[in-house]
Amino acid sequence: MISGWILYKNELEESYETQRLVEEFESQDVKVRVVHPDDVDIFVDRDDRKSILVGGKARALPDFVIPRTGSGTTYFIKAILRHLERMNVVMINGSDSIDGVKDKLYTQQILGQSNLPVPKTLLVKHPINVDWVEKNIGFPVIIKTLSGSFGAGVFLAETKRQFKDLIKLAEITSKSYNIIVQEFIKESFGRDIRAFVLNGKVIGCMMRQATDDDFRANITRGGEGIPYQIDEEIEWLGGECARLLGLDIAGVDLLFHNGGYVICEVNSSPGFEGMDSYTKTNIAEQIVHYIRLRLGIIESPKPKLTRFLEDGDEDEKK
């Protein structure tokens, strides 16, 4: 029997995604343990060790690990992931990929370098030249912390005055703040696309729509999801983002712009409760199937890939 870990920092009951993964692994005869990073100790010596300390006891190495720590991945958690990688444990996703995606500016640099559509982005430095921001990006403008998720650390400054006030607040809070300023995509106010990518393929897609006047559409902030057709552009952008950033699993957020899309950001530990609920997918089942393939266990049936078909696709519906 193959075995694995889900590295997660909170209680199991607090995460739909972790619960669903545990259920699917158990249903497919895969032994899985939810491990809190604080329970892991790294011990390095000259021997070729085949175990790692969990809860103060030596445990057999897992065959695979799924880190569910995302933007909350600390240096200590990354050290755990690197330690396991050095002992040839399969990582879904790897430590370098998680660390890279955690930095939103670095993500935009990688994607922009490969000619993918991204909003104009500026790393600001203290003291901020507000006139220079106005000249090169203009207002309204989006302000983001370099690390964050679920829409936290993202603000909209509609005017030059609001921008100055937000920056002043940041300076009072911390003299060593790190923020980026990003072009505001008006067409996408209160709505965006979330594409869930697994092994380079978009396996779920929905439009997220704010239900109030918030410019953010995150479901965790009260937004709702609407099934959205996976077109060629979404398929290509989702796959390219995952490939360039080295992600087995990725949540790719796209903004509507000029009849197409621009890439808002990419997540290494995307939630999928909303995707399952609004698009009737079974993301956990497909993740488990992928991991079985990665480990060479291929006798399980391939899960059905849910896609939303346009009217007239009768042959595919049959």
Written overview of the protein:
With 318 residues, the chain is α+β, with helices and mostly antiparallel strands. Helices cover 31% and strands 25% of the residues. It has ten helices and 16 strands. Helix 2 links the parallel strand 6 (64-67) and strand 7. Helix 1 (16-27) packs across helix 9 (283-294). It is globular.
What is the strand tally? 16
C-alpha geometry: globular
Largest beta sheet: what is the strand line-up?
14-13-12-15-16
Structural class: alpha+beta
Q: Helix proportion of residues, in percent?
A: 25-40%
Low-confidence regions: 308-318
Overall mean pLDDT stands at 85
Distance between the termini: 37 Å
Count of helix runs: 10
Rg result:
21 Å
SSE succession = EHEEEEEHEHHEHEEHEEEEHEEHHH
Strand content: 25-35%
Q: How many strands, which pairing sense, and closed or not: the largest β-sheet?
A: 5 strands, antiparallel
Secondary structure blueprint with pairings:
Blueprint (H helix, E strand, L loop, with lengths): L2 E5 L8 H12 L3 E5 L4 E2 L9 E4 L2 E4 L3 E4 L7 H12 L3 E2 L3 H8 L1 H10 L7 E3 L6 H7 L4 E5 L8 E4 L2 H14 L5 E5 L7 E8 L2 E9 L14 E4 L4 H14 L3 E9 L2 E8 L5 H7 L3 H12 L19 H4 L1
Parallel strand pairs: 1-2, 1-6, 6-7
Antiparallel strand pairs: 3-4, 4-5, 8-11, 9-10, 9-11, 12-13, 12-15, 13-14, 15-16
Helix pairs in contact: 1-9
